[in-house]
Amino acid sequence: MFKNLKLLSICAIFAMSLCANEVTTNSVAEIPANEVEAQNAMSDASAQDITPKSIEDFFDEFANEYGISYGESINGKTFFSAKATAMVGTNDADFAKALSVAYNEAFLNLQIDFIRDTYGKQAAQTLRKTFTDNSTNAKEFEKLPPESIFAQLLTKISELAGAKLDEMLTNLGVDFQKGLSEERKKILMAENLVKNIQTTAMGQISGLVPIQTAVTKDGSTYDIGVIAVMSEKTVQIARDMKFKRNSIIKGKGKNIKEFLPTTNDGFLDEFGIRLVYDENGAPVILSYGRWGYIKNSSDEYVNKRQKDIAQKQAAAQADAAISEFVALSLSLKENSQSGKDVEHALTQLITSGNTQESEKVAKNIIDIASSEVKATSNMQLKGIRTLKRWSASDKNNVEHVGVVRFYSYANVKNTNEVLGIQNGKNSNQTQQKAVKKSQDVSSKSKMVNDLDDF
């Protein structure tokens, strides 16, 4: 289930698409048929399956297939990749949730890389401290100064109290070392080298579209990888969505239900959003929200309620993904310390009537890292509809649920017409259009993402 990938053997089509016409603001931007065909083909659930050995293989296969380099712009298209690891394995009842969280983490890592590379600032500081004592008496401890009469009295009182406590502990059968102890330390050589690096970044992302995802097993854990693209077209579509207006980007597409997997099990391979064109040539954002639940009750009603709650969470995940496509604000702060710490020291342990000395060299590598990321997005839900709710059990009987949500300008227009009806501004034509749009909403959706769409 997790190894299904939808890479296509259409390098020639993609190469031609890289030379597609730029979007103009004065007229409708018609996307060439071959470019749309490539995108739609990538979105097809019946595409050829390729099983990479690892997520890194998945990234390399994709780059080689389409002749791209991650992070580099080719004719206005820039590709990105990132991965994350699921917290639990497939035999855990929470695997469905862990997989959804891992996808969100992988896509966040991708967004972080973009913000860091685009808006990042870095400050570095290196500190070095050294100390050596090669004196003739370097290994000799200085004699303790004689105590005053009052200090001697306090010492005797302490020893007396300590002896009394020792006797009480002995009566209780507690093993201990008699007498109070004091440790003295003399550093013969010390060397400390620390490099502090701080990276900060803050910026906005819009139009970043996941194209493909893959889940592969790595030992006892599963990695999930995400490949995404950004271009002038995707940014323009995101901007049109933000202002709830008809996009000037057009292309020859097909009915969006043809992009969906044919079975519920097929949805187990789908994550994130996809950009496709419908039969009217309008861009559509499909979003696949996923979650899981556990049948831990003997009462069927309780289990069904758990399923309903999980599907609501999946719908929220799908809406959030669409919102992040429109506009995401992200701030990043990373700190790291690296270096070494060497200390050659002489230690003297003084106990009642006994003195012990030891010499030790401690060598340590310094490796400390911390990061803080804050990502926020918001948008009106007008224009987003539910296409399909699904549920499936994987091979390990883990329960997965999902909701496919989609955004289109047709949905926005339909909502506006409904609001017009409520305000008494309806007409027969408006009512007919509203009915037609509701049929559109009922169509099935699948996770689709194309390179040549962008």
Automatic annotation (TrEMBL):
Q: Does the keyword Signal apply?
A: yes
Start and end residues of each DUF6844 domain: 151-242
Q: Where is the composition biased (Polar residues)?
A: 421-430
Signal sequence residues: 1-20
Q: One Pfam annotation, family name?
A: DUF6844
Question: Looking at the record, which segments are called Disordered?
Answer: 421-454
Q: Which UniProt keywords apply?
A: Signal
- Enumerate the InterPro entries for this protein: DUF6844 (IPR049286)
Tell me if Ubl conjugation is a UniProt keyword of this record: no
Domain of life of the native organism: Bacteria
Q: What is this protein called?
A: Periplasmic protein
